[in-house]
């Protein structure tokens, strides 16, 4: 079976998008997602995005990390899919309903409301996620913010001096985070500016992470370090994040289509059979 795909990115965080809104796709499992995402033997991407019909929104967006794990939210992919759709959309995700609107300055996304609180950890007690008394070498005292998916945010002097390739996986896979976690290292440089690098759960160091930018901005606001609207600059470029008075996070930034193509499912070990 031949399947069309669109290769897209948001600030260099790249996606393969499969559109199953009108025609059926074969079942997508973790092995298929990881095979497509492989940069040497597949198409290559940080996340595989699958669009499907929805009863709750205009359509549904399924998100798979490069390691094949299925996750709840992806900010950059939401902008990319908003661009693909070409007009305002409400999108069902595992993390909730998000909505996208094309604007003069890019695609704007209402990401929903952040969640904090207490996290039950496998050590037999609950921990306040606003200021977790834990450390991984120089990464200390994170705030954990859930914006559909889970993030730990560490405020540091210079994110580019942190050895993310070594410390990222240590934090991501620590049993204190039962669902694993996205690891953000951030420096507040002004009341409206943050510099950020993200080690993504299931994908490693990416050029940008939209939900990471949202969670980090909210974490900094919660700690009183910045105002309610900030520019978060990632290695791939800037995003604007606003925490509105109604508690909803709004992210605005660019999205780009790189190219379109098609592949044979048999080349990825997928049987030539579409569910009825
Ligand atoms: N790149 C994304 C986040 C993708 C999911 C994340 N790695 C997770 O496991 O939660 C973004 O732009 O938000």
UniProtKB/TrEMBL annotation:
<feature type="binding site">
    <location>
        <position position="182"/>
    </location>
    <ligand>
        <name>substrate</name>
    </ligand>
</feature>
<feature type="site" description="Could be important to modulate the pK values of the two catalytic cysteine residues">
    <location>
        <position position="200"/>
    </location>
</feature>
<keyword id="KW-0457">Lysine biosynthesis</keyword>
<dbReference type="InterPro" id="IPR018510">
    <property type="entry name" value="DAP_epimerase_AS"/>
</dbReference>
<comment type="subunit">
    <text>Homodimer.</text>
</comment>
<feature type="binding site">
    <location>
        <position position="65"/>
    </location>
    <ligand>
        <name>substrate</name>
    </ligand>
</feature>
<keyword id="KW-0413">Isomerase</keyword>
<comment type="function">
    <text>Catalyzes the stereoinversion of LL-2,6-diaminopimelate (L,L-DAP) to meso-diaminopimelate (meso-DAP), a precursor of L-lysine and an essential component of the bacterial peptidoglycan.</text>
</comment>
<comment type="pathway">
    <text>Amino-acid biosynthesis; L-lysine biosynthesis via DAP pathway; DL-2,6-diaminopimelate from LL-2,6-diaminopimelate: step 1/1.</text>
</comment>
<feature type="binding site">
    <location>
        <position position="13"/>
    </location>
    <ligand>
        <name>substrate</name>
    </ligand>
</feature>
<feature type="binding site">
    <location>
        <begin position="210"/>
        <end position="211"/>
    </location>
    <ligand>
        <name>substrate</name>
    </ligand>
</feature>
<keyword id="KW-0028">Amino-acid biosynthesis</keyword>
<comment type="similarity">
    <text>Belongs to the diaminopimelate epimerase family.</text>
</comment>
<feature type="active site" description="Proton donor">
    <location>
        <position position="74"/>
    </location>
</feature>
<protein>
    <recommendedName>
        <fullName>Diaminopimelate epimerase</fullName>
        <ecNumber>5.1.1.7</ecNumber>
    </recommendedName>
</protein>
<feature type="active site">
    <location>
        <position position="74"/>
    </location>
</feature>
<feature type="site" description="Could be important to modulate the pK values of the two catalytic cysteine residues">
    <location>
        <position position="151"/>
    </location>
</feature>
<dbReference type="InterPro" id="IPR001653">
    <property type="entry name" value="DAP_epimerase_DapF"/>
</dbReference>
<dbReference type="GO" id="GO:0008837">
    <property type="term" value="F:diaminopimelate epimerase activity"/>
</dbReference>
<keyword id="KW-0963">Cytoplasm</keyword>
<feature type="active site" description="Proton acceptor">
    <location>
        <position position="209"/>
    </location>
</feature>
<feature type="binding site">
    <location>
        <position position="149"/>
    </location>
    <ligand>
        <name>substrate</name>
    </ligand>
</feature>
<feature type="binding site">
    <location>
        <begin position="200"/>
        <end position="201"/>
    </location>
    <ligand>
        <name>substrate</name>
    </ligand>
</feature>
<feature type="binding site">
    <location>
        <begin position="75"/>
        <end position="76"/>
    </location>
    <ligand>
        <name>substrate</name>
    </ligand>
</feature>
<feature type="binding site">
    <location>
        <position position="47"/>
    </location>
    <ligand>
        <name>substrate</name>
    </ligand>
</feature>
<dbReference type="Pfam" id="PF01678">
    <property type="entry name" value="DAP_epimerase"/>
</dbReference>
């Amino acid at each position: 079976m031949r399947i069309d795909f669109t290769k897209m990115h948001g600030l260099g965080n790249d996606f393969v998008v499969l559109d199953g809104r009108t025609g059926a796709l074969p079942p997508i499992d973790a092995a298929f997602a990881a095979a497509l995402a492989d940069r040497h033997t597949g198409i290559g991407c940080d996340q595989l995005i699958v669009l499907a019909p929805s009863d709750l929104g205009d359509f549904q967006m399924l998100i798979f990390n490069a390691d094949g794990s299925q996750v709840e939210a992806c900010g950059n992919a939401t902008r990319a899919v908003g661009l693909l759709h070409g007009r305002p959309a409400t999108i069902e995700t595992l993390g909730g309903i998000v909505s996208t609107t094309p604007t003069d300055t890019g695609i704007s996304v209402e990401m929903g409301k952040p969640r904090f609180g207490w996290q039950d950890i496998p050590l037999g007690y609950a921990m306040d996620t606003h200021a977790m008394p834990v450390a991984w070498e120089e990464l200390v005292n994170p705030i954990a913010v859930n914006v559909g998916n889970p993030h730990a945010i560490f405020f540091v002097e210079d994110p580019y001096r942190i050895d993310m390739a070594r410390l990222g996986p240590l934090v991501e896979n620590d049993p204190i985070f039962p669902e694993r976690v996205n690891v953000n290292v951030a420096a507040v440089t002004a009341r409206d500016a943050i510099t950020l690098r993200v080690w993504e759960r299931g994908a490693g160091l990416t050029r940008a992470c939209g939900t990471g930018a949202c969670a980090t901005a909210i974490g900094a606001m919660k700690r009183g370090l910045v105002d309610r609207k900030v520019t978060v600059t990632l290695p791939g470029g800037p995003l604007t994040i606003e925490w509105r008075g109604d508690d909803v996070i709004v992210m605005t930034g660019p999205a780009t289509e790189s190219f379109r193509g098609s592949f044979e499912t048999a080349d990825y070990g997928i049987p030539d059979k579409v569910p009825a």
